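Purpose: get a first structural picture of the assembly so the mutagenesis plan has something to point at.
Setup: three entries, given in the order below. No constraints added.
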Amino acid sequence: MIYFGLTACPCNGKFIVPGSDSLIEIDQLTFRRGDRVIFDDIDLTIPRGKITAIMGPSGTGKTTLLRIIGGQLKPDAGAVYVDGQDICAMSREELFGFRRGLGMMFQSSALFTDLSVFENVAFPMRVHTDLSEELIFDLVLMKLNAVGLRGARDLSPAELSGGMARRVALARAIALDPGLIMYDEPFTGQDPIAMGVLVGLIKELNAALGTTSLLVSHDTSETVSIADQVYIIADGKVIGAGTPEALQQGSNPMVRQFMHGEPDGPVPFHYPADDIRFDVLDGGS
Amino acid sequence: MTFVLTCWTVGLSVLAILWQLGLRFLSLLGALGRASALWASAMWGLPGRGDVKLVIAQIYNVGFLSLLIIVLSAFSIGAVLSLQFYTQLARFGAEDAVGVGLALVLLRELGPVVTALLFAGRAGSALTAEIGLMKTTEQLSSMEMMGVDPLKRIIAPRIWAGLISVPLLTAIFNMVAIYGGVVVGINWLGVDPGGFWGGMQEGVEVYEDLVKGMVKSGVFALLVTWVAVFQGYDAPPTAEGISLATTRTVVISSVLILATDFLMTLVFYGEF
Amino acid sequence: MRMRTIEISVGGFVLAGAIALVFLAVQVSGARSTGTQNSYDVVARFDDVAGLRERAKVSMAGVTIGRVKSIAVDLEWGDAIVTMAIDGEPGNLTSDTSARILTEGILGARYIGLSPGAEEEKLQNGDEITETQGALVLENLIGDFLTNLGKS
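Result (structure tokens, whole complex):
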């Protein structure tokens, strides 16, 4: 990567241009949890205004990556730059300001159970802004309308179906028109209709709001249908990067196995065991 | 030769046991450390203006909703105590002492202890389950991602609510229990009201009995709330984890209440 | 749940707690608003104060007029020095008032009973009561009784 240096970053000495094509630069990120290495010296670039998908087998730490970008976790080595700013070096106030421009949709929708749908969507507005009640009312209704749930505004989260809850979570994520929206496994466990609704919404919102969307999922077909760029992470390394079409035709066996859902390949079907002939002949002795 | 072998085996077994205990102890220390960190982070600074509403909402959840069980238990306990005291004192012709006996036992011991135990069972377990659930459904995470400190918004109000509610509940418990004792003692068993109340007022002191009892109650409030909130926050984010944490809250709270009650009783009333 | 209802309930709860505290203080403990009443100190020496405790009552003719403030021992003479806080202003006790250590009922708590004297002078703050009689200890009584029995 060639950087046209204008602003110096406080650490690492790399030059990042705010407002350039990439919104997020992840450099040599290493993260460990206990003895396990979750990320081993990985580099990622998330382009501005596009939908980028992070895919990989379960447990590779995709949610952890989102948390690191959001500043909830600190990496053991490396840096994360969002719009030229180093997340790790931010103070509490700076982080608070950063999060104002961040919307996140969690896998479990994470709606606040003691608040109504309306209050859930209004929450970020009340936290980050001093808007009047009338303005908040209008804004919340607009956001709910965008996801088709304006009529459900007085329900409590317990009364919503899974798909509806996800849509409310999406409305909450876009409450402040964020510059970056992160989706953690949005399609998991959804019925086809809800799936279709979500896929459509993510694509529409990204285009309408002009935001950058970061999508973490292992639902290949849905993700591939809307993503502009895909990263595949396995065993702590990036094993594939590029457009969905390029990856689907790719030659890397692990990428092939993942993208095409092949039961056997670099990730083996059989749990390690002796040759079956010896096992059967031994007769369990 | 066999002697050496026996020594060796015994020695190793003892070491193994000590090692296990040591590990247990270390993990206990670890838990205590995390719990202290949670307390410090959540309680740093008094609640701000906006947070008062949150505290009030929590006092409702934790205090007001516990009133029913507190009042019912208090009345029953007061009535039963009165009856038991009467039976024994009547043998010496000292029925009037039912009043002072009842009051002393309640204010010094049963009021604070039983209230705290009931609170741990009803409100403590509810707190643990609620916080554990919030953690499991990533509500705490999403709050953090929105720039809100879940410790200040969720944990701290609940702690304040506990600290305020338990002493109030204890006072209400004592009052209702004494009333229960009055109903049984005076109205039913016929103890002379003058002797009952007079003996009570003579024998009960504001500082010795009431204040020290409320101090106990304050200490219990701190312990129960702390344990409940920590167990919920520290629970593994699974359904099983939450249910185990809820049980742990009740068990650990109860043991701590009784143990500190013993210590405080020694300190307050022991004569050395 | 509406915020209004919650606030009212919490207010009611706190009020109930406050009422309970007041009830406990007044009706149960007999605390009176005479907490800051004036009092003055009077000292008395006894040869035996067995069972007398601090905060024990000091009474005359059965009416409580003060409290035992502190109990100390004079190691040289073997006496117990009891300091009493008497309610009111100095001048309500004559200087030849006598003090005895009595027992409530048969097995009750010890207290100090004062009997008035006939002098004109009154006890002032810090004065000593000279006429004292120590506590009757059961063992000593029995011992005396047995000794007398043995003599006769």
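Chains C and A do not touch (no CB pair under 8 Å).
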